[in-house]
Design goal:
The structure is a single chain. The protein is built from no helices and 9 strands. By secondary structure, it is an all-beta fold. A hairpin with a 4-residue loop joins strand 2 and strand 3. Helices cover about 0% and strands about 40% of the residues. The chain starts with 10 loop residues before the first strand and ends in a 7-residue tail after the last strand. The strands form 3 sheets. A 5-stranded antiparallel β-sheet has the order 6-3-2-1-7, with no helix packed on it.
Length: about 100
């Protein structure tokens, strides 16, 4: 997958998995892998080793990537999760209310 329908800063809704129905903001997009990282969704515990002298190690919680096909863009006008259409010039459009993103 090279072209993504989601950009960083967009609000999306998760369609499947543990966090189904949760809305969140996209932090990062990886078009090469076809994945996105959404704020406070798919949180995993990561073991961190102390790198510098005096720096604490331990467990931290980090958002993990999930496939872009598992999220759907939320329209800012109608507030519903919707599919994305395109106009000339690469403008993204809501399929439900024809509002531009």
């Amino acid at each position: 997958m090279s072209k993504m329908f989601v950009k960083s800063g967009d609000t999306v809704m998760v369609l499947s998995g543990k966090s189904k129905g949760v809305r969140g903001e996209v932090i990062a997009v990886s078009p090469k892998e076809g994945k996105v990282i959404v704020k406070k969704v798919n949180v995993v515990t990561k073991h961190v080793k102390p790198r510098k002298m005096g720096e604490p190690g331990g467990l931290i919680e980090v958002e993990s990537a999930l496939y872009a096909s598992k999220v759907q863009l939320v329209c800012p006008k109608c507030g519903e999760a919707t599919r994305v259409g395109h106009k000339k010039g690469g403008i993204r459009v809501c399929k439900k209310c024809a509002n531009e993103f």
